[in-house]
């Protein structure tokens, strides 16, 4: 340590990593699903994960917010080691927004109710503040006029945009998306992608998707996974445009 560093105290974390995954293994019984994953997502970055069904993409996302417990390896979120046995898991999850293929809205609550319930119960916000935050986020996803509408009266694309707004209302440092448009009719996919495209400038995002045009246009980096391992990663124009590995090429030939 130099004299100046001693004087200034511990240097701040300047790596800026939102997610750091090192040597991540995950098995379900005898089935080894993740075989040693190393990835980093920097703050502000948008990283898309692509790969065949069953390659472990969802398991990777679920290990980041501990919906699955890693078998071994280290996962850090914003510098906090979430794989530390003593970590405050609820505290970590609160900092991570997650959007799934299925929208999982509460059917008996309006759009506004869906956005305020966790803010009030988990973050302890009062009604007025929770509603103000909810309205701001409904505006961000273009659904201001739907605040009093129930999920059943919304299209799939609108429901997914409510789910995104709900996650944003918790003020996450990081958003995880697991095939957010895969359950949608094709004509509804574009609205959801447009919302995500706008968010890309504001939020760190790790997105599992089969939407190659989204990955090409929005991602800073693309990670191709196959059989529980990262096969290649790099800028989209390289991984999607000029893949180096035969497995990436054959996957892209099937989805493009
Ligand atoms: P992807 O999202 O890339 O399609 P997943 O991460 O969902 O892949 O699954 C990877 C593998 O792990 C698959 O073979 C799947 O059947 C298996 N798997 C996922 N979750 C579980 C679980 N809870 N128990 C047992 N096997 C699982
Ligand atoms: Mg999946």
UniProtKB/TrEMBL annotation:
The keyword Cell wall biogenesis/degradation does not apply. Keywords: Amino-acid transport, ATP-binding, Cell membrane, Membrane, Nucleotide-binding, Transport. Residues 19-252 form the ABC transporter domain. Gene3D superfamilies: P-loop containing nucleotide triphosphate hydrolases. GO terms for molecular function: ATP binding. It is a peripheral membrane protein. It holds the Pfam family ABC_tran. The keyword Endoplasmic reticulum does not apply. It is found in: Cell membrane. Belongs to the ABC transporter superfamily. This is Amino acid ABC transporter ATP-binding protein. It comes from Streptomyces albiaxialis. The lineage of its organism: Bacteria, Bacillati, Actinomycetota, Actinomycetes, Kitasatosporales.
């Amino acid at each position: 340590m130099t004299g100046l560093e001693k004087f200034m105290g511990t240097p701040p974390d300047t790596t800026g990593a939102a997610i750091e995954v090192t040597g991540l293994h995950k098995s379900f019984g005898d089935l080894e699903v993740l075989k040693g994953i190393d990835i980093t997502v920097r703050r502000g970055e948008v990283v898309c994960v692509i790969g065949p069904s069953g390659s472990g993409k969802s398991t990777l996302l679920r290990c980041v917010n501990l919906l699955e417990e890693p078998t071994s390896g280290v996962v850090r979120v914003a510098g906090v080691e979430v794989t530390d046995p003593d970590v405050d898991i609820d505290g970590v999850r609160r900092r991570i927004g997650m959007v799934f293929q299925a929208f999982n809205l509460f059917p008996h609550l309006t759009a506004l109710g869906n956005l305020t319930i966790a803010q009030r119960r988990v973050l302890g916000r009062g009604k007025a503040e929770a509603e103000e935050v909810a309205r701001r986020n409904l505006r961000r996803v273009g659904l201001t006029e739907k605040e009093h509408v129930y999920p059943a009266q919304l299209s799939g694309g609108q429901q997914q945009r409510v789910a995104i707004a709900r996650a944003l209302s918790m003020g996450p440092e990081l958003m995880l998306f697991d095939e957010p448009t895969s359950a949608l009719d094709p004509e509804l996919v574009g609205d959801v992608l447009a919302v995500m495209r706008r968010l890309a400038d504001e939020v760190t995002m790790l997105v599992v998707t089969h939407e190659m045009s989204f990955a090409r246009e929005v991602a800073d980096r693309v990670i191709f996974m196959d059989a529980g391992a990262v096969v290649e990663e790099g800028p989209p124009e390289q991984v999607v445009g000029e893949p180096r590995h035969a497995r990436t090429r054959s996957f892209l030939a099937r989805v493009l």
